[in-house]
């Protein structure tokens, strides 16, 4: 199973394999979900040539061609050492694709924020701001319940709603990742998404049209390793 350079197991491994060895297997589902007719995507990370590096903060935005945010800077919205993006891509129409990948259900049950008190204050302020905007009836603490999902939504809000950038948030769910005991069907991931949205109080908001959930079968990737 082990292949030089690739991560040993799980979503990190299979995302690296997909992006670098058989991008068509992941480009198709993402383009279909986002509504992009012209493909392929241009992947900015994780690239083998860059040591499969993953990016965060402004380093991630620079990979997407963003030198500065035009309305509100990242530093005013989120403290340093924010979310690390599993993958980043752009489209021919200059849409920005930010990817979070999962290969088993426990990965989705992320723990609460472990930020320092000063950083947590800014995080909670921004999460409440997003929560009031897109889930006004939600009463839970987004820094504690499904925190990773919530902070990805917050970044999308910063990019799309505040700064007017054409960003798309994509959750890639791998099935048949037997190396980590992952789900065998997309319906299992659908249940996880339904539970997550219920816990966060998400119902309908225009921004959620730019949050996508796609399923990629590891069986289609194994021969590319």
Mean pLDDT equals: 94
Main-sheet strand order equals 1-4-5-6-7
Overall shape: it is globular
Assembly type: single chain
Q: Would you identify the regions where 5 or more consecutive residues have pLDDT less than 50?
A: none
How many individual helices? Answer: 8
User: What class would the helix/strand composition place it in?
Assistant: alpha/beta
Helix content: 25-40%
Percentage of β-strand residues: 15-25%
**Helices and strands, in N-to-C order?**
HHEEHHEEEHHHEHE
Number of domains: 1
Please provide the count of β strands. Answer: 7
How far apart the termini lie comes to 8 Å
Radius of gyration: 17 Å
Biggest sheet: strands, sense, closure? 5 strands, mixed
What's the arrangement of secondary structure elements?
Blueprint: H1 10-21, H2 24-34, E1 42-45, E2 55-56, H3 57-63, H4 74-77, E3 84-85, E4 87-90, E5 96-102, H5 105-108, H6 117-134, H7 147-162, E6 167-175, H8 186-200, E7 211-217
Parallel strand pairs: 5-6, 6-7
Antiparallel strand pairs: 1-4, 2-3, 4-5
Structural features:
225 residues, alpha/beta, five-stranded mixed beta sheet, two-stranded antiparallel ribbon
Architecture overview:
The protein is about 40% helix and about 15% strand. With about 220 residues, it is α/β, with parallel strands linked by helices. The chain has eight helices and seven strands; from the N terminus they run H-H-E-E-H-H-E-E-E-H-H-H-E-H-E. Strand 4 and strand 5 form a beta hairpin. The protein starts with 9 loop residues before the first helix and ends in an 8-residue tail after the last strand. The strands form two sheets. The chain has a five-stranded mixed beta sheet, with helices on both faces. A two-stranded antiparallel ribbon has the order 2-3. The protein has one domain (about 10-225).
């Amino acid at each position: 199973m082990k292949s030089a350079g690739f991560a040993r197991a799980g979503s990190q491994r299979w995302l690296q394999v997909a992006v670098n060895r058989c991008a068509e297997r992941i480009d198709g589902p993402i383009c279909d979900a986002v509504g992009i007719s012209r493909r392929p995507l241009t992947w900015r990370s994780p690239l083998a040539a860059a040591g499969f590096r993953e990016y965060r903060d402004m380093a991630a935005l620079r990979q997407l061609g963003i030198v500065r945010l035009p309305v509100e800077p990242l530093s005013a919205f989120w403290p340093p050492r924010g979310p690390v993006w599993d993958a980043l891509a752009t489209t021919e129409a200059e849409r920005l694709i930010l990817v979070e990948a999962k290969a088993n259900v426990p990965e989705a049950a992320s723990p609460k924020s472990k930020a320092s008190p000063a950083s947590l204050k800014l995080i909670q302020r921004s999460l409440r701001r997003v929560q009031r905007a897109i889930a006004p009836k939600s009463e839970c603490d987004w820094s504690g319940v499904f925190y990773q999902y919530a902070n990805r939504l917050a970044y999308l809000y910063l990019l799309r709603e505040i700064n007017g950038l054409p960003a798309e948030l994509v959750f890639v769910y791998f099935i048949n990742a037997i190396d980590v005991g992952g789900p065998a069907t997309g319906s299992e991931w659908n249940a996880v998404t339904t539970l997550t949205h219920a816990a966060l109080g998400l119902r309908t908001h225009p921004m959620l049209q730019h949050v996508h959930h796609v399923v990629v079968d590891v069986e289609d990737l194994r021969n590319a390793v």
